């Protein structure tokens, strides 16, 4: 009798935990009405609005955060852009620059951006096929197109912060408030990259003195901090740049030629700053602000579900032994 009771208990327990976790996730979601107003143009579309949560006092004085997101057509494209938009629409004074790897703006992305509730600019530039081979850096043309747009449409009077938000990453809302005070180039830790739970700059006395990283810590700027596991797929998402630094360095760009796989971030940052001038964020880079629990919980649910199925089948078939 006891063995039957315990077997049923352990079969039900994982499913109960799954339900509790999913209820907890759902209770933390917020619902926001989309912002109104947009304009469209031939090669780009710009949307204006006023997203954000919390108080509205003095928000107009905040520097605008410009998030550059390269994207390309694939089955999960809209799902990943949707995840990003749910975070971005909660950030005040935010502008999303989405750059498609295509010969023209696609209807899917155009419709999505028109309804996402985030102020945006929609660009497109096609990556030549010779640069799409395995082992070559991705999204170089798209990031450079976004930098060009900023230099053409923003002036020395504008205040802002630029960062690179690839569409397969997840961000904590705290990160945006951290980066907003960037004076030159700021940097922070990132999780689930390079086969490690996290990677981060090593900081002493408020200065970056080294790198805790799984791949080539000897790089001048070991900032391939993203949810990728190979150097050729490294993404420059662990740093932010003051808008004026971008404008005062008009030739700074991500290099296609002369840049080794995984070195684009270092090559770009060498054009605009020095390691000693980096501004460590997230409590001197001791907090992993780029991957919060919101990305870990779904993974936990998947593992728990797999465990539950295996255990249930094991108990079921053991009854026939």
UniProtKB/TrEMBL annotation:
Gene Ontology molecular function: any one: galactosylgalactosylxylosylprotein 3-beta-glucuronosyltransferase activity
Catalytic activity reads:
3-O-(beta-D-galactosyl-(1->3)-beta-D-galactosyl-(1->4)-beta-D-xylosyl)-L-seryl-[protein] + UDP-alpha-D-glucuronate = 3-O-(beta-D-GlcA-(1->3)-beta-D-Gal-(1->3)-beta-D-Gal-(1->4)-beta-D-Xyl)-L-seryl-[protein] + UDP + H(+)
| Residues bound to Mn(2+) | 168
Q: Which residues form the active site?
A: 265 (proton donor/acceptor)
One BP annotation, GO: chondroitin sulfate proteoglycan biosynthetic process
Task: Tell me the keywords, alphabetical order.
Answer: Glycoprotein, Golgi apparatus, Manganese, Membrane, Metal-binding, Signal-anchor, Transferase, Transmembrane, Transmembrane helix
GO CC aspect terms = Golgi membrane
- Its Enzyme Commission number? 2.4.1.135
User: What cofactor does this chain's UniProt record say it requires?
Assistant: Mn(2+)
Question: Where's it found, cell-wise?
Answer: Golgi apparatus membrane; Membrane
- Which top-rank group of organisms is this from? Eukaryota
| Quaternary structure note | Homodimer; disulfide-linked. Interacts with PXYLP1; the interaction increases the 2-phosphoxylose phosphatase activity of PXYLP1 during completion of linkage region formation in a B3GAT3-mediated manner.
Q: What family, per the record?
A: Belongs to the glycosyltransferase 43 family.
What's the protein name?
Galactosylgalactosylxylosylprotein 3-beta-glucuronosyltransferase
Organism for this UniProt entry: Oreochromis niloticus (Nile tilapia)
